[in-house]
Structure formats: C-alpha cells, structure tokens
Amino acid sequence: MEIKVLQNILEANDQAAAEIRGRLAAESVTAVNLISAPGAGKTSLLERVIPCLGACLRVAVLEGDIATTRDAERIDRLGVPVVQLLTGGGCHLEAALVGKGLAELPLEKLDLVFIENVGNIACPAEFDLGEAAKIGILSVTEGSDKPAKYPLLFHEVAALILNKVDLLPYTDFDLDLFDRDFRALNSQAPVFPVSCRTGEGIAHFARWLEARVGDAAKTVGGPGLVVGRW
Amino acid sequence: MSNGGGRVLAVEVRIGTWRLVVPEVLAGYYESLVSGTPLEGSHVAIESVAASARCRTCTRVFPVEEAWIVCPDCASLGAALLSGQELDLVGVELED
Questions:
Q1: Cα distance between residue A61 and residue A113, in whole Å
Q2: What is the ipTM of this complex?
C-alpha cells in the first residue's frame, strides 16, 4: 500500500525563511546573504564596503562561522551592530539560526543587514535565509572554472563580486572563460570586479547596494556586540 | 503501526540533479537513523529528476547538461529552470 505525501523536505527551513522575510519587510530592512569559499573575502568586503555606504544607511551584520568570534570582532571595529552565529560544525547557515540572530538586532533602527554565510560555495546556496538577495564572491585566486563547477550558487546570485583583481596578473584566471560560463548560468546578475586590498571597485558595489536598499534610510543607530551560540 | 497501516517498507524521495544531495549518502544516513526504531528494515527509494529549462526567447524546453543553461535552438541566455531542484518526500510504501 502506498501513501502519497508530497512535501518539500526543506519545508521547515523555507517556513522559517518566510517568517524572516515578513519580519524584515515589516521593519523595511533589506537583508543580503553573502556566500563564498573560505578566504575569498566576505569579511574583507564588509570591512571595505560598510564605511563606503551612505552615512544615513544603518547597517548590521550577522556573522556565520563554524567556530571563533574572530570575524565578529573585525566587524565590531567598524562600529556597527554584529551578532556572531556559530554553527558548531555546520557548513552553512539555516533560517532558524538567522532568525535567532535577527532577534538580537534592533531591526527598527536598521536599513540593511548583511548575513555572512559560512565559507562554502556548495551547501549555503541551498538554504533560503529570508534574504532579499544572495551575493556571491569569487576571488580570482580560486580559478575561473568555479561557475561551471558550482552552478547552483552562480545561478542563484543577484550580484557577483570578483575579488582580488589586483592579483590578476599573477594568476591564470581566464576572464573570458569565467564570463562565458557565468553568463550561461546567470544572464542578469551584475559582476563587480573589486580588490578588498586596494579598495578598487568597492564604490560601484556600494552604489548598487544602496539602490537595492532604496531610500528607506532612517537615522543612525548605536554600535554593540552580542555574541551567542545557539 | 498506528493509524491501522502496516510496516513501512520504503520512503519515496524525489531529488533533482541540481540539488547538492548525494543519493547514496542519503540512503546510508537513513539506514543508520532508523536502526532500532519501528522504521528499521525500510529503505529510501530515490527518484532522480533531470534538470531542464525553458528558453524565455523561443520557449523551447531543453535538458540542462551540467552548468550550461543556454538554449540549443536560439542560443539565448537566461532560460528559466523548470526542473532539477526538487527535494520532496513523495510518499510512503506500507506493507499490505
């Protein structure tokens, strides 16, 4: 005897993500989910782009990591609210943990929340966190073949940061191959070539982000550090 | 089991090829998880769903081979994925 069920196995995560999306919409907060391999420059990008954003834009960060509060400490130095999310081994963030992290933030005083995912370009692409957009970061030292090898992430992103372009002369990164492979997966997302080391290209990405957030900016909120393990 | 049904023989799952799920690993975990429970002895029956896309320009539906969502007819980019991202519990097979 067969019983039909037909249920999405990730339904619990999708429900938590929908709840987050509703909460963020009610507070006019835009959330973006930053996804890249370890060391591609997620935290470095935040260190560069946050000071470059319009002064009236109030920003906070949820820092996803397997272990340590090192990234949260780096973000805390920027003077923006930050919550460290420790997965305790998990290779990606799920919506339930993000929901707990958001509860620690003064959403009514914020315009933009960066969710820095765990360094990994496979699993994080699978999980909706209630964000308005997924933003991918690929550093040129990783190689130009990554879109073809990890198609789901590159298909899902609303924008792609190509980091470490100051190192292009020292790598075999093939910009034409990268462009061809990426466009075969994603014809819409803008690509922002940047160097988080020199600051090149950061302003273009900042202007794009500001446009995504719109003019819902309110007034400047206070900094703080909350570190929790759930 | 309760609700008048017989023993569970299989749990039917549908997984798209674009999902980052390894069927053999899923089946192995299932076996470990149900060990010592009323589900012991049942297995996961996995149906794989190939990825396909519809061209937004000429509406052709085509299979997506690897990471290449380009229409084979008109070479347009930006086709919409139709299938390949499934991750569904489809049903449960019970002993009669």
A1: 5
A2: 0.84
